[in-house]
Amino acid sequence: MVRVSTALLGLVLMTVSLDGQSPRPLPDRAELFRATQDNLARAQRVQGRYAYKERRTELHTNPFGRLGTGAVHLYDVTPTPEPGFVLRTLLETDGVKVANPRPERQERSERGQTRTSIDDVASTLEFTMQRRERVNGRDAIVVTFAPKPDGRPQTREGKLAKMFTGTIWVDEAAREVMRVEATAIDSVSYGLGLIARLNKGTRITLTRERVDDDVWLPTSVRFVGEGKAVLFRRLNVDFAADWFDYRKP
Predict the structure, then answer these.
(1) Model's pTM, two decimal places?
(2) Comparing 6-20, 87-101, 202-216, which segment has the lowest mean pLDDT?
(3) Which residues are CB-neighbours of 9 under 8 A, at least 6 positions away?
């Protein structure tokens, strides 16, 4: 037992001090959060300039009470000179190419947040730096979050954020959000509660990556949970969307 304890102590000391050096301190909290918020706002401003491909699960309910388990569609999305609109072209359905695909003009569906909503989310949640990890060969700062007891969100995004707790991985050098894992601590309404209400425990995972020089944009989201649909049907949710092949048209 003494030998085992001594060995464990040695391992602990090795993690605390390597070659006589103390572990690198975590970055300044205020500076890290400010720079990360600024980068999220900048990404929102430039996101509309990019074309991309989108692979997503069709989101709908069926008689069995499942949501988001329909066909998987692949789209090409291209911005138009007209602000607020894009051309969406269906390329594939369940891996089968569409014959003679035709672009359709649609109003842009924003995946990001405005500066106001980003600031509202930041003021609604309490963030705590936990540690440093290596993620895909890069240093990431692990930050946990939870709703502030006295938080008073004003935007839709802030009100949604107040229902979740979770973890954020921030690229330390770039000051960019790499990944978010969130779990609902309250029920979440979909379609103002008229379509569905998802139960506590619903999980959301979001990833972001560098897509062009110093621009980081969302690359995937996953939404998994249970709840109630219209007419009180039991509801299972498994929705996924991927965004890739970002490019400037």
Answers:
(1) 0.82
(2) 6-20
(3) none
- Cβ-based neighbour number of residue 143 at 10 Å: 22
Amino acid at 234: R
In the chain, count of helices (H) and strands (E)? 4, 15
Q: Angle 115-124/29-47 helices, nearest 10 degrees?
A: 150
Q: What is the structure's pLDDT at 231?
A: 53
The domain locations on the chain are 26-247
* Cα angle for residues 216, 29, 181 (degrees, 5° grid): 50
Mean pLDDT of 24-45: 94
Q: Which residues pair with 76 in a beta bridge?
A: 53, 89
What is the CA angle 76-79-82, rounded to 5?
A: 145
**What's residue 64's pLDDT?**
52
CA dist 95 and 87 (Å) reads 21
Neighbours of 105 (CB within 10 A): 10
Quickly count: other Cβ atoms within 10 Å of residue 26's Cβ.
15
Give the whole-angstrom CA distance, residue 218 versus residue 207.
Answer: 6
Sign of CA dihedral 215, 220, 224, 228: positive
> Which one has a higher pLDDT value, 11 or 39?
39
Coil, strand, or helix at residue 47? helix
pLDDT at 67 over 60: no
Q: CA quadruple 117, 119, 125, 129: dihedral positive or negative?
A: positive
CB 77 within 8 A of CB 87: yes
